[in-house]
Amino acid sequence: QMWEEAISLCKELAEQYEKEVFDYELLSQNLIQQAKFYENIMKILRPKPDYFAVGYYGQGFPTFLRNKVFIYRGKEYERREDFQAHLMSQFPSAEKMNTTAEPGEDVRSSPGQYIQCFTVQPVLEEQPRFKNKAVPDQIINFYKSNNVQRFHYSRPVRKGSVDPENEFASMWIERTSFVTAYKLPGILRWFEVSSVSLQTTISPLENAIETMSTTNEKILMMINQYQSDENLPINPLSMLLNGIVDPAVMGGFAKYEKAFFTEEYIRDHPEDEEKLNRLKDLIAWQIPFLGAGIKIHERRVSENLRPFHDRMEECFMHLKVKVEKQYGARELV
């Protein structure tokens, strides 16, 4: 389903058919196929593969693996547990590491075999041709998990006193960046990591902003997908919307409000005023996104799921009133 790559090849062939061999019949077939690929990009929902960092530690591994880290591209819908089980079956003597921290010299120099495996997130490379242009999500999404070379791993770190009622207040994120020798996918589904760096430590408030921003992007992306394809199953949209609006499921952003929108936090962190306003703005913008999603859901939902939709819509209306009162109303153009 890498239609973007197929289109590039089609263009090369078209050049040959039109200007070198003058075979307009083949050119016509080529252009029809190319048009189909463009249509597929806009209309067909493609699953995003997961990427896994795998470290092979210990002197028991051959030299091309020993004490090295590789990034693997998983198969469609492949869970980390399944990928790891397959990996371990290739090294029956290896011991699975249960930590994601970089191992010490004792592990690296030991005579045994230790395998470390965890999920990493691909980082979208800047596409200069998209800059300052309204590019549909269906086009950008391809580059979020393809032609990628940089990957992030975010490790939660506790700092300060932990509030058992609200873990977000003390949830810092330590982010490590991995760069592979070549872009993925390539000739292989895996490449060696050429550099590793601790990029940054993200505060609980910055983590909340990232999470809200990602959620809003996810809602908007799904709205665009359902608007462009009438045949998409309703379940993914149902789960996403209900997980946000139903307080019995996730609790939404109430935990952020308790952690950051208090007089005590504002007094102790005056430098965070701009970030707090950013988080409030993201919360406010989530309402029109959710509203648009619920309208699509209402049109698509089957009769047997109508009670589920009605409850979700009721929860949304309560949420809308609360948010607009506290953070103001936003409207989609």
From TrEMBL:
List the GO terms this entry assigns under cellular component, sorted alphabetically.
cytoplasm; plasma membrane
Task: List, for all copies, the residue spans of the domain called DOCKER.
Answer: 1-332
Superkingdom per UniProt: Eukaryota
Record InterPro entries: DOCK (IPR026791), DOCK_C_lobe_A (IPR043161), DOCK_C_lobe_C (IPR043162), DOCKER_dom (IPR027357), DOCKER_Lobe_B (IPR046770), DOCKER_Lobe_C (IPR046773)
Query: One GO molecular function term?
Result: guanyl-nucleotide exchange factor activity
GO terms classed as biological process: cell migration; myoblast fusion; small GTPase-mediated signal transduction
Q: Which family does it belong to?
A: Belongs to the DOCK family.
What's the protein name? DOCK2 protein
Organism field: Mystacornis crossleyi
